[in-house]
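cron nightly-structures :: item 1 of 1
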Amino acid sequence: MPSDAALPASGLSAVPSTLRIPLAARAFGDAMFPRMAIGDASAARLLATLEDQAPPLPRDRATVYGVLARTRCFRALARDFLQAHAGGHVVNLGCGLSHYFQWLDDGKARMTDADLPEVLAVRRALLADDEPRHEVRPLDLTAPDWWDGLGLPARDGPPAFLFSEGVLMYLEPAQVEAVFATFGERAPVGSVLAFDAMCWLATGRAHRHPSVRPTGAQFRWGLRRPAELARAHPRLRLAGTHEVMAGYGFPHGMLSHAIGAFFGVPMYAVYALHAVG
């Protein structure tokens, strides 16, 4: 995740402190939305520890639903990849305190959780990542050498599944395009980059988001047209768009449909880019 200059929460600077939002949603979201339950075995314990250090988050039902829905989507996409590539490598770009390996460990898969050093310091203090096939590495997606820093394969190597959850909207547009360009240039054929993105209308409006507002973080990038996602490199192909809030009900479902029809992109969605030959 990118760093940010605003005041810290839970000892973290603004953007890293947003890790508490998905953690809180996973901690109490199953009770709020049983049909969307994800069964996170560690979220409640971790949240209780963090809330000793910072004010509690608002229980924003729409955000909780969105986190559960996108978690289910990322998890399903990763599982599909691992079914097609036994023993494959899954990389979480901006992991925060998420623990996807609890759902993806099939006895063969490898996983890398990566984030800024300040986030990893919190993670290592609270969450044990001691399975040999599960590693934790420092990451700054705004650095040009992030691919090499994670030890990811060369273009002629085995494909990998990368995903970035709740991260790219906090980067500048040029930084997001650079991430896509690096993936397009470096990723082996068959690799996947999945990520969530808001419609461009949300850019600069984080103060209207009840859970993000207290962190001081800001939405800096939003999608205008799906075609933008593949323009960073000729090897990129948009392989899937998964609306996050469409199932939440009125008015979010109607609003998402209206925004998609009028502006050409959903209000909020998970996207999957593939690297082709």
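cron nightly-structures :: done
Residues 1-10 have pLDDT under 50 and may be disordered.
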